[in-house]
């Protein structure tokens, strides 16, 4: 283990929201400027998984937990090969990490990957502001990038909004790869990568599934070239209203009746494929402590979330679609947002949250077993 006793960066930094509110603090990570959509995450642990989740592409993440970086950075927990957040906001960063797996400080890792952040600001006040006003564009400026506030605000307001952004192709793999089954191979799954997290194919591999991960632009022919027992659509960033190609591929999968499972962005794709609309949430769900009820069992689960869009589907009973009846299978108990869809006449379902939950909780891990059961039923 290596640690650093150097002091944290003392360079001044400023965070500017598109509505003009400003927070001043210290630089954290790289020094410079960055832009994105300001969102907050309520998780008290798992910051490595958050930083490396491709679904956070073009977002500046505000951590509501006041003390961040305690366990440093290791080489085992990242969900992808790089940090995807556009910027990082913390209140009290740890000066020295304390964990036997730590290899470097979080500050050092952010700086090495060019991620501009800010610390020593009132993240509680910032979070309350975002809850009241909604997620919005933001800029972080430090060092020589700091200028008068009017100039900084103009830069922030020139940044494209998240609504209408087509981003999955920017984070997905460009080449197909295979995650082998652990132990005896039982099934083959074609996984369409829209921003997949590394733990997702691992959870399937643990259940004897060989996972063929395909690029976001994979065609129906690409999907069925691997002779899949099931098809999976992953999480990912951006506005689902722009994802016309994945929707068309999913409709072809539904037509064939192949067992289908979608997570997060994949849930929104299924919603669109069935004919439902999607909409942008005021400030989204992000963190690892969101209560969701599985309406098929009545069980309430604590779940991991990262989404700013949701499916607009009726909660009061099954709906008719071109692919048979569908019902809302899961709902968020905080705000009644649709958190899952289940087809009653075809082997397909999805959830809006993250059952792979590398940093926990693991209440929803059973959903991978449901996917296995669908494939077993189809084979039988």
What do you see in this structure?
The chain has 380 residues and is of the alpha/beta class. Helices cover 22% and strands 32% of the residues. It has helices at 47-51, 106-112, 123-133, 149-157, 168-171, 199-205, 220-225, 244-256, 265-273, 366-379, and strands spanning 12-17, 22-29, 33-41, 59-63, 67-68, 87-89, 92-93, 116-119, 136-142, 177-179, 187-192, 209-214, 230-233, 260-263, 277-294, 300-312, 319-321, 324-332, 338-343, 348-351. The strands form three sheets. Strands 10, 11, 12, 13, 14, 15, 16, 17, 18, 19 and 20 form an eleven-stranded mixed beta sheet that branches. Strands 1-2-8-6-4-3-9 form a seven-stranded mixed beta barrel. Helix 8 (244-256) crosses helix 9. The longest helix is centred in the last third of the chain and has 14 residues, at 366-379. The radius of gyration is 21 Å and the shape is globular. The termini are far apart. Mean pLDDT is 95; it is low at 1-6.
Report the sheet with the most strands, covering strand number, pairing sense and barrel closure.
11 strands, mixed
The pLDDT mean sits at 95
Give the radius of gyration: 21 Å
Helical content (DSSP H or I, runs of 4+): 10-25%
N-to-C order of helices and strands: EEEHEEEEHEHEHHEEHEHEHEHEEEEEEH
Shape: globular
Residue fraction in strands: 25-35%
Which structural class do you get from the secondary structure elements? alpha/beta
Number of strands: 20
Through-space gap between termini: 51 Å
Count of helical segments?
10
Poorly predicted spans:
1-6
